[in-house]
Design goal:
four-stranded antiparallel beta sheet; 305 residues; Rossmann fold; 13 helices; globular; seven-stranded mixed beta sheet; alpha/beta
């Protein structure tokens, strides 16, 4: 596994860190993204209207909001009360709960589905307790959809050049790096190879049905040159004012829906939705997901022996 640090006064698993990040996020924008989310086909395949789904670490709340509007009975849990308060103010009918994913306040076998999106990797002592809790609250043959950072071949190649902000680790344990270049480094998250995270899931009582690498652009963002180009492009976009009435259109059509020949629509399927079903080019997306994706999805069922 890869242990990753960042230069911040707050660790990756603290409420202060996430409150600082979520303050910049709009619920409505993130809910709109669910329409083109690479994970959407997996939700549609494994979560049916009427199912009871828990999201452990719901954050801003786009998933519990989007799927509640489509007939799934969703429950959102998070340890960050400011985010929960903002979500309750926007969607007062949603069932929400403050809590810790490693000590869930629910009875055994309560849920049909559990979604964990980029959560368990932030426990420096390891993900085991959170995974065991996920199994405990799932009904027999219940489905766990869980995403964690992927220690991809690209990340492995770039690790020696990471300037002490990343290092390979054989086990999860707390440590202290102290100062680097005059800045304080704190633990952020782990990235896992597929087989090692599968082993953790098996030990917690899950059987992995399928996996999928996604968030390919963020994975390619690891390249310093590409990062500089993307940052420059973003700076140019920020400097160009967009009328508030046009923002929704601009965001939804960034990769295009309106081109008559369908080219931009295909680009959107490839770049945003990472649709592997696109003829021929879908195989390129699949290969990039294996080689350089930022995240890995594991679709699991509770294994009852």
């Amino acid at each position: 596994m890869l242990k990753m640090y960042h230069r911040s006064q707050h660790e990756g698993g603290t409420s202060e860190y996430w409150e600082q990040n979520w303050r910049k996020t709009s619920l409505e924008e993130t809910v709109r993204f669910c329409e083109v989310d690479p994970l959407r086909p997996f939700f549609e395949r494994h979560v049916r209207p009427g199912d009871l789904m828990l999201e452990g670490g719901c954050g801003v709340g786009q998933y519990v909001t989007y799927y509640a509007e489509r007939g799934v009975k969703t429950v959102g849990l998070d340890f960050e009360r400011v985010a929960l308060s903002a979500l309750h103010e926007s969607r007062p009918s949603l069932p929400l709960c403050a809590g810790d994913v490693a000590h869930l306040p629910f009875r055994d076998e309560s849920f049909d589905c559990y979604y964990s999106g980029g959560i368990v990797e932030h426990f420096e002592a390891g993900a085991e307790a959170a995974l065991r809790e996920a199994r405990r609250v799932l009904r027999p043959e219940g489905v766990l959809l869980i995403t964690v950072p992927y220690f991809s071949p690209l990340r492995r190649f770039l690790t020696p050049f990471s300037a002490n902000s990343e290092r390979e680790a054989t086990e999860a344990q707390a440590d202290f790096l102290g100062e680097r270049d005059g800045k304080h480094l704190t633990f952020f998250q782990y990235a896992y190879q597929v087989n090692e995270f599968k082993s953790q899931l098996a030990e917690a009582g899950f059987r992995v049905v399928s996996t999928r690498g996604f968030s390919i652009l963020w994975g390619l963002y690891e390249f310093p040159l590409l990062r500089r180009l993307v940052d420059s492009w973003r700076s140019m976009r920020r400097s160009r004012p967009v009328p508030s009435s046009d923002r929704t259109v601009e965001e939804s059509d960034r990769f295009g829906n309106g081109c008559k020949d369908g080219t931009q629509s295909v680009l959107r399927r490839l770049v945003v939705s990472e649709d592997v079903s696109v003829p021929l080019l879908g195989w390129v997306v699949r290969a990039l997901g294996w080689g350089c994706a930022n995240m890995m999805l594991y679709v699991c069922v509770r294994a009852d022996h």
